[in-house]
Amino acid sequence: MTANTSRDEVLRRVRQALGDRPGSTPDPGTIPRTYLTTHADRTPEQSADLLADNLADYRAHVHRTHAAGLPATIAHLLADHGTRNAVVPPGVPADWLSATAGVEIHHDHGELTARTLDTVDTVITGCALAIAETGTIVLDTSPDQGRRILTLVPDHHICVVNTPDQVVDSLPQALPRLTPAHPLTWISGPSATSDIELDRVEGVHGPRTLDVILVGPPSGPR
Amino acid sequence: MSGTYLGLPAFPQAARLSTRDEQLRANLRHATHTIRAKRATAIAELSDWPELRAAGTAIKDHTLHHLDHYLEQLETAVTAAGGTVHWAIDADDANRIVTDLIHATGETEVVKVKSMATQEIGLNEALAEAGINAYETDLAELIVQLGNDRPSHILVPAIHKNRTEIRDIFHTHMAAWGRPAPDDLTDEPRDLAEAARLHLREKFLRAKVAVSGANFMIAETGTMVVLESEGNGRMCLTLPETLISVVGIEKTIPTWRDLEVFLQTLPRSSTAERMNPYTTTWTGTTHGDGPRTFHLVLLDNGRTDTLADTTGRQTLRCIRCSACLNVCPVYERAGGHAYGSPYPGPIGAILTPQLRGTTTALDASLPYASTLCGACYDVCPVAIDIPEVLVHLRERIAQGGPTTRHGTKATIKPAKGHATERAAMRAAAWTLDHPAAWTATQRLATRTRALHPRRVPGRTASAWTATRDLPTVPARTFRDWWQHREPDPKDSQQ
Q1: Cross-chain residue pair B278–A206, CB shorter than 8 Å
Q2: Bridge partners of B339?
Q3: CA–CA distance, B425 with B295 (Å, rounded to integer)
Q4: For B207-238, what is each residue's pLDDT tens digit?
């Protein structure tokens, strides 16, 4: 069938199929939403702790620091991973990288190809927000996160989460803070498969190592 | 390549063979029991599971009841975001649209994200005929494709293969498709996943065109949503220049907010995780990030016929989580191939005969591939009453009745091969209307119980008892026992 006839025919079939239900203006407000918006009352500290626990449960490595300790934490993780070169999106603050001596840093301005990124050891980004109850970080391609490809091709991803500002408890709290017009990547632990006898194996195509750094307020305890 | 389901034997014949396969049954038992236990734990974390289930059901029903409105809204939103929307009546229509789109790019190979819709329409076979190689990139789909096999589970398509079988497939077949497996490949899942990573990475890095499905399409915003674990989805959805998504029309949901329900229920029901490792959402095209061209192919292929059936339309709520497969005693023993469709298990037993019709022996047999135990309904996160639809379809097959095929209302005749059941039902109805005859029949049955055969003779009747054990007749009828029972001492005290 030609394009227009297929469209018209599908819509005709839908309307005929719904002949038992007279047409009316849809009102999504009639959908019962009696489910919870969060599954517990938590202090910001408790939410950060739950986020850390759930990330770790899905084999992400979680690190806690405060703003002044962040450059040293990043440098330490790069050294631990044996990173020789790393890529950062354009909006990552320069002071994050102030302690990374000896590591070649690529700043991506949209020009690095997949093949180039395939030779890069580590990517360092921020995030849009993190969800405590599911152990999820969400990236929305803002300048401190960059293009989706950056956090996909290198084998090691370091992601910085500011607590408590960027932490929400639950999915119902996360969605209103995100803009669907931006491409989003939701990450819960490193790449994994359970396709072989349902044994979970980390690392198939995405980064095999996910380091998440939870940065507390300057006066914070950690 | 594999994938044609035409001419496959009816479920009872296929299941008779597969239930004798000890390896298959062991693989399946291990896998389904593992995921069943994990799923129960993941769901126990949510005290509001019944409310989430009710909301998911209501969202899906609401969308289906206004599907024309939401499809038009979706089309407008996707177009406004820079995408192009195509409509496909059936498999041939969809395959032709996708083939033409790929030809227009000048490419002869594409990478694919696992997609039930493209399995359903036989896209890989259609592309191969047009000279286009389609590479499956999900690990399990890769195993199935390399092994020239068919998927047997919605979520874990290679669930019927164990690690040793997978190692052998990689060893024998990887080289013909690209980078060979290492010579010293072991059967450790970690090594097998690494071999797949290296084999597929060279394909991801050179791919110009990708084909995907989608878990959800949001009418309000035109946003597509894909949930996955491995990152192959992200590779396909973000690296190539052209992205073509083939999605069933029933995957539409009204609003962005509705994701808060399904992102809680789908991962827990399918992989038994709080959240799957990766979810990608995209809206049309984004300058400087991801594919420059996005095509959405909206697929009917029997869905509007299913929508026309007021009992059967609830099937279209399905979010393809596969929880019903993992609890089904019939699936656990027969395996997914016996269902002769990309959709196996309880959901396949009601979805396939509605999408394809019931004219073949295989499709007419599927509503009988169940014990009606109801476990599938209990676990379904969108509360599809699978037993109700199974019984409804059995009635339609055995007795005939009104239906819709290819958008046209029709009345189907009773299927052949169900004469014995119809005769038995008529005899039962007469007997129950005549109590004296019923009592006499029961007495006769108890007195001759030692003489009863294990199988009923006759061609059609033996076909029925070949797959069922006849119950043993008790020594006395209930009425006899009731009339002659010893008085209960407690009764006389009152």
Answers
A1: yes
A2: none
A3: 52
A4: 999 999 999 999 999 999 999 999 999 999 99
